[in-house]
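ESCALATION

Customer reports they have been waiting on this structure for their group meeting. Please prioritize. Original submission:
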Amino acid sequence: MRRLVTDLLKELAEDLVYHGWLAQAVEHEDAGLDWKTVLTELLSEGVEIGDARVASPKYVEFIAWKGTAEERVLRAIECVNGLSGHDRTFAYWLALRKHVDRFEEETNST
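Update from on-call: job pushed to the front of the queue and completed.
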């Protein structure tokens, strides 16, 4: 698993990673891993999980989810299970903490 996490961290240094990419990377690893285990490890390595939204034609904004690592993994599972097809592939996004534009709390205006 360590090599897979290292490879994903390298990918994240350059860009965002979506659920489908993570799941495919885990599947190709073929080491009896599941994406939830790898996601948990990534969150402990300075990776954030959240939503990506187009902010302008040339910029995607990353909004990190709040909560403990366990809560965020459970939320990711719920998102994946609640979607199908193409939507499921993009159920959530990952980014290095230094690439987070904002956290969810900052989006609440009520």
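Sent to customer with the following note: The chain has a mean pLDDT of 92.
Escalation resolved.
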